[in-house]
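2024-03-11 09:14:02 INFO receiving multi-entity request
2024-03-11 09:14:02 INFO entity count = four
2024-03-11 09:14:03 INFO echoing inputs for audit
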Amino acid sequence: MTVSKTAEKSSEKPGDAAKGRKDAAEAHPEALQLGELSEQLGYVLKRAQLKVFENFLRCMASLQLTPAQFSVLLLVEKNPGRNQTEIASTLGILRPNFVAMLDNLESRDLCARIRSTNDRRSHILVLTDKGKAVLTRAKKLVATKHESRLNQLLGQANREALIGMLSKIANEF
Amino acid sequence: MTVSKTAEKSSEKPGDAAKGRKDAAEAHPEALQLGELSEQLGYVLKRAQLKVFENFLRCMASLQLTPAQFSVLLLVEKNPGRNQTEIASTLGILRPNFVAMLDNLESRDLCARIRSTNDRRSHILVLTDKGKAVLTRAKKLVATKHESRLNQLLGQANREALIGMLSKIANEF
DNA sequence: CGATAATTGATATGATCCATAACAATTATC
DNA sequence: GATAATTGTTATGGATCATATCAATTATCG
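2024-03-11 09:21:47 INFO inference complete, emitting structure
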């Protein structure tokens, strides 16, 4: 990027011309030193998370599912008959923000809101047949194309250790 | 319609028409089952990252430094004399978004933009004296109040293993 | 040399999240 | 039965992220 210039600037203080200038020889090694940054938990966590989400989106391109949408489908499948507040709160999603998300999933016929009979304020959430089918395919894609990469990269034992440590951080930090 | 169920109380005991108060669904243990979610890399990564950032902000409340701002100060300290494009790109920050960030740091007299003498398009970034002092205090706070929590939670060996694995993911996933 | 392309910092702008307040309908509480 | 609380929803603002574009400057190349 910064190579030695051919034509130097005209106006220069005569005294420190040699040292005030660029030590163009080895001045800028093109790659910056991360230094302590590469040991900062937050920094490396964030970078890893971005990479993982990016890979997830690529793997799920055919199904058009984001990580958040996938987590909703998983949770509704595992806990059918729960209402929006319950599903949203356990995922850390605020109720107002969950509405548009459900609108999306429902418009694609992946899940459905059903009026609860014993509390007509709340909407019960269930997966549609299509939602179940899509989720099944999504799980396969995630397992074969996404999570498998972790094993390939870290090995089975390290992968489990990593998930365990991250869970511990998520729950106890 | 692909929805098979019409109400959530499909499995209810006949005689139990008890107008259950809020726990009409006593079959619902109040706490949802996370299921496969707790094994999903992306899910646990994101949750851990949010917790870590949250803790970081609390630890840095006295200095009013966000994780991103801290990373900028660290990188500028380690690589003085680089321009905005270089600093921003190695942090994964887009140049347009880096402008307001620098405006903030510069308005607080933590770092300064200096017109480069050999390329008058670019701005060289350096820490001010105050910036160096604040960064020194920030490092201490991070080490004693933030990163120390990791050792306390995982132990030194596991902490290093975790950082290593996350770095590997960030770089090779 | 001089015309053209490329780079740098900056602005404007839009998309996507994330968070809070408030409201109608319904239910719980006293 | 009056009042408070809850549920889903809307509106709204802030923060983050991405793209297009511009003026100034520098690089490239004919």
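2024-03-11 09:21:48 INFO post-check: Residues 22, 93-94, 96-97, 119-122 of chain B lie near DNA strand D (CB under 10 Å from a C1').
2024-03-11 09:21:48 INFO post-check: The beta strands of chain B are 82-83, 111-115, 123-127.
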